[in-house]
Amino acid sequence: MAETSFLTDDFLGQLISVGEVDILVGVPTHNNAKTISSIVETIQAGILTFFPRERAAIINADGGSRDGTRQLVMSAAIGDAQSRSKLYALRTLRSISTEYASSPASGAALRTILAAAELLRAKACAVISPESTQITPDWLAALLRPIYAETFDLVLPTYRRHRFDGILLTNLLYPMTRALYGLEIREPSALEFAFSGRLGSQFLAQNAWHEETAQVGSEIQFTLAAIAGGYRICQSFLGAKEHVGRHSADLVPAMRQTVGALFSSLEPNFSVWNAKTGSQPIPTTGAEQEFSLEPLRINRKRLREMFSVGVAELESVFQSILSPSTLGELQRIAALEEDSFSYSAELWVKTVYEFAAAYRKSVISRDHIIQALAPLFRGRAFTFLVENRNGSAANVEDDIEALCLEFERLKPYLLKIWNGRE
Amino acid sequence: MPLEKDEPWYKHAIIYQAHVRTFYDSNGDGIGDFPGLDEKLDYLVDLGINTIWLMPFFPSPLRDDGYDIADYYSVHSSYGTLEDFKKFLVSAHERRIRVIIEMVLNHTSDQHPWFQESRSSQENPRRDWYVWSSTDARYHEARIIFLDTEMSNWAWDPVSKSYYWHRFFSHQPDLNYDNPAVREEIWNVMKFWLEMGVDGFRLDAVPYLVEREGTNCENLPETHAILKELRRKLDEQFPGKMLLAEANQWPADLRPYFADGDEFHMAFHFPLMPRMFMGVKLEDRKPITEILQQTPEIPPSCQWCLFLRNHDELTLEMLTDIERDYMNDSYAQDKAMRLNLGIRRRLATLLDNDRRRIELMNGMLMSLPGTPSIYYGDEIGMGDNINLGDRNGVRTPMQWSGGWNGGFSAADPEKLYAPLIQDPVYGFPAVNVLSQKRTQHSLLNWMGRLIAVRKTTHAFGSGSIEFLYPGNQRILAYVRQLGDEKILVVNNLSNAAQAVELDLRRYKGNILIEMFGKNIFPRVGELPYLLTLGPYQFYWFRLRRI
Amino acid sequence: MWEMIVSELTQAMGDLARGFAHILPRIIVVVIMALVGWVVAYLAKVILRSILRLIKFDRLSENAGASQLLTKAALPSATDLLCRFVFWLAWLGFILLGVRVLGIVGLQEQIAKFFLFLPRLFVALLIMFFGLLLATFLARAALLAAVNANFPSPRLLSVSVRTIIIIFVLSMAFEEVGVAEQTMLVAFGVAFGAMMLGLAIAFGTGGKELAQQFLEKRFVHGRKDDGKEDELSPL
Fold first, then answer.
1. CA distance B528 to chain A (A)
2. What was the ipTM of the complex prediction?
3. Residues of chain B contacting residue A89, judged by C-beta atoms under 8 Å apart
């Protein structure tokens, strides 16, 4: 293959003029004009407050915005020529932008940010989501300090979330990552995180940037790469994460991004996870996780309905993925009345592990495997919602902890079916 | 001594700041003197400078290095006689070197006969030549300048049992400019020296002449009125002479000192100087461009005076707290290097004796808008001695050679007014005029070339400035233009090689001629003009249409 | 007379013997050809297999996604399949070459025709094979998409997709071998039209909600669609 660069000449020119930096903040965007200005301003305030003397830059990797997001980022730069900012800066604080593709892809965005971080020799680099409207300048300190002032390589966030926010995270990603890799990482697929120059360079150098990787969730891959590489990881509490109302159509893409990436990481990392048992907490500054309890209306009935329809309609698909006993059990609970319905932790863990093994063997198209998991996840979500309907934050936490332990307990089951042709 | 007819001479001056005491001792008493200065004038001619600014040489108890004057009409006996001064003045003018002397308007020494008379009794006719008060509560909004030594701007006089006002040291009582007799007397002093032939005055501490209740007692309209009156008399009786203001103020507060071209001819640009150091340390042009953007236009006959270092501490007053902390941490890690709100170090020591940075800073000094002033010794990269108190560390004897007392004096070393710098890096055996004269590439010879190139164009002295803002913030680039003459200056503020693309489209068709080597660079076209610069490198290009 | 019978018989016997003597070597040749053909075909198979193993053909086919398809179609591995195909092709070729030696009139023509027909048959089989796989894949994709989008009767949609693709594939395959072209074309046309109608109705039903949403957003300000916004957020 010819040596082609994924960085445009224009962006390279911008990088040359930014020059070496100590701190880099990457913001991947796609049509975020509404929020981007205030986010960039907060980032600037964070940098200027906590790293006033450091050389810093903000890099916007844009996935083909048509609403002027890029222009807003670039005009926010604090320099000498046309600075409109009210913030006081000791030195120039550039914010530059590039369009990495005409449609958004988190992997390609991260790759652009990583490449910029390496070319600019950034000591610490943070990635901030353009949708985090609740960001405060403190976030920058929380994310970057452990790397810049201490020797951590990856800082992952913890948030104050609604107890029913991020059910995929609390019911699959967190417990499974924890059970497999032995580290209690609350947000393995965070949209905000920070990393050291050496971790960034190592991940960039991995020959894993073919198209598939660029499409699926690069955030979780990055976390897993850091775990597999034995890098020092810590967590920082950032603050409240706003509950964003989602459309049901968002579930499958979200699962592709996260569950797909988690599943596909298992094979190359087999030697990393197969021998680990139990799990350990990682260094955390601030709260590990907080839950807010204000009421939230969720259409539970529909979750339950979609689960049952899924189990019935997808029988042929499940036959090639699940073991007969698991499938039989699923069919049994699918037929139950709403009041007695319960998708137990054990059954859920078995389901997930069998899906992971099927994913590895590619019994059918891998994307179909992930899609087939979605209706089952809805069933599990329903049970989680019902069980914690009136629960306190501590109850929710206990429930999640129990699920984690179940994932850890059944890990031998995964190892058993991993190679078997069941 | 006409130099140029159309342009005021001070616009194209290159000022050399010297102190008689520190320069050369002709009679072996350990203290520099006017005959000694006279003797070394040819050295200054070789360097290329055309103006000397002398620090105070008047009779004084020397508790503030001569800024505490005890007699305005004479020369301190250690430095020679009035006759010696006159002879020096003549030989300087013979060499086409102008002489600016110091005039301390704001205060006198407490040893001055005027103050002695004033304090002697409440009824003395000179009583209200100074600012007296029965209470120390007046003018409490005025800040204290010498924070490290003074507690109050009022001092108790046990003789006359009342307080007197002083903005600086307590042994320097402020004159009362509300008194017409004081104003008259001060004009007489100036007239005395002007008639002798001096070419201008550097007026010390001008913002503080008048006090008014409820103000910070700085830059008051009454002060400006007094200064305008002095200027009017100067123009009437001594046309072609120059007034230079020392007013450590923000650009906007400084601007009134130029008034409509009828107050000061020149003023020091205090806020720029620390920002040049800051820009080089930050490797970012922002502090420099920012302050120059904030610098107001001044009347065409007026001029800024630029400097890197002078006899005082590198003042950080005109900085924000963040900037000041940064400067202190970058340039004065050792607390002993700090004094008041500043850093008491010389150019070479501030810049870690890094020849490339010293050259860059001097390059900017010579190419930014204004008249440059070089502090004695900095042209050879002299060091300082922070073990000497106050600002005396940067006022050590000039290092002429590696021999006895560095060639400064034939006296016993113990008799010198201050010890020479002796450390292995900056000491006179390593850093001195004689050895630098002998090496082509010495800083001294390089400074001579820099000054010679500066003098090849008037664009630096009186041209306009237009900043280019290339994407690379480590590059400070500007075009100086006077009529058809255009000079492009490109400075790399960084420790690493840099590439920069300059938007020179409006100069399309010009070729670039590098002013030191006179080599031709490619013609300017539509595309961004690409230049690469080594660490701390700078270029001066003449833009020529051929 | 007896003599005549004898002589005729003798002649006939002689002719038979001669004929037999004439044809026997040819039969032997056919048998030898078959045997040699088997050996050559076997060797070809073995050599091909080792070459394919050497170039890790299975891995390649896996990366290309063919292996999953074969597994799904309950067929042996790609290497095995290819080897077997080459073996039979080579052996059959040798046998047919041998048969030609027999010199049976008409048979030769048929054999020639068979050899000409072979590539078309091969292509048709290939089309069938991949077509069926494609049908399975797309049918499953439709099924999953429908289930996750909460579409009514996902299985119907899935079966429809499968049917339409199979019909399409069959018509392509038949056209390739040149059998009943006209019939297939008409059958395809009818089936396709029916499918399109079905799909149009399906989309209409599915899109109803979307259209409603759009209209509401456009004309009824400030009213939120309660059914949609309170879905759980997964991350």
1. 12
2. 0.80
3. 286
